[in-house]
Model the fold of this input.
Amino acid sequence: MKYNTTVRKLSVIKADCVCLPVFENSHFSENEQELDSALNGALKTLIKQIDFKGNAGVASLSTLQNANFKNIILMGLGKKDDLSLSTFQKAANKTADLLKQNNIKTAVFANIDLQLQACAQSETDTTSVFLQAVASKRYSFDKYKSTKNTSTLSQLSIQTNKASQNACKQGLEHGQALSMGMSKARDLGNEPGNVCTPTYLASEAKALVAANKEMSLKVLEEKDMQKLDMGAFLSVSKGSIEPGKLIIIDYKGGKKNDAPHVLLGKGITFDTGGISLKPGAQMDEMKYDMCGAASVIGVMTAIAELKPNKNIIGVIAAAENMPAGNASKPGDIVTTASGQTVEILNTDAEGRLVLCDALTYIERFKPASVVDIATLTGACIVALGHHRSGLMSNNDELANLLLTAGKQAGDQAWQLPIGPEYDEQINSPFADMQNIGGKGAGTITAACFLARFAKQFPWAHLDIAGTAWVSGGMNKGATGRPVPLLLNYLLKHAS
Ligand code: BES
Ligand code: MN
Ligand code: ZN
Done:
């Protein structure tokens, strides 16, 4: 797919389809007026004919008499003064649907006079969101299907004016990098467990690093982790014949001594629950238990494109959680790399066991911030459904930056509390802590467990159990979230 910006007038643009924003109860903009006059009022007539009111989030495809383009999609954006990012996102998604359903090959998005609420450079965001909508509808994971899904759209132009052209170019650059990162995260998530193993994740990281000279790679094998006394991580990986790996992707875009921002992803490439075996129904979806890791590789893919002048480290704790003769059993006690001991009451609470040793390892980087991303608890889906990721943190400033980053990227999170009253729930009679918190607040007690290993740095935890994939049916699949939130955080907020 090709992208470009153009400052040509609408009336002279040739394309299969023009996508034109329309506001509720609003006069024509200069851009629309220009087109309408050139067509002797045909645009006004069309809008009357189909009774298009510009309601927020509605999109409609028609043909327009005598125009240089065959089709026009009117994008309803609601009231001009309160255009929010989410309204624009909705309209862009509907528009992308129409482009796909109608097999459009070349499309133009008229991106003039759009002012998003509380946004300084709206054209950058509207361009990036539009591109992302189009790219995400084009995405399909069909490598194992005999019949491939074809998408016809091959060219997207952003029509704008001289004053906004640079902003639109930036939007294209950001949108392209973001879409690449999201597709990568979706591909990795959708890849089945017999292919996407910890070794596969390491080879994906290797390929990314090989193509970028600002990046370097380190992979800790199980024997390396033994030397570091990572008893919690190894208690999970030992039950599988697939060797566990701790994968570290180091991007140096900043000064040598700038403290890095670290992303840590849960990479359980399949979660059977272990000896605390999960029920069979929909267990296939536990191939998505590495979506935190996928989001880290996705973000690093985008970072490799955009090359910000910051130091960023992506860490992936990759293992398979299997029942086996040598697997961990409920009641087993292990010693973590931090020296703290853990009683494993449920082998299905394995994510926190691989992450805690990775958090201890991360201390050596003296990070400016650490964000872990994990499909950690089913309880998070009960609390927040599939709309927002759960956010917990030991640092309110970091939490607020992440909440803002999510809002701006249309990929929201919602903060849940952590604190001593919840932390108590993971005290154990036999060890320093146990790996489950009993009845109530399962998402929070999981975070409290991680917090005990994150005392040396500002840390936040994103529980993406509800947001990383769509469950069941023909729409099943990885979403690429929270790549938009994380990328926006790293580019605009992390300092
Ligand atoms: N990977 C799961 C969490 C999960 C479950 C994500 C369903 C998405 C959908 C995690 O490893 C897990 O099994 N968590 C347990 C924790 C419990 C044993 C305290 C859970 O949520 O049931
Ligand atoms: Mn589990
Ligand atoms: Zn899991």
The chain has two domains: 2-161, 183-493.
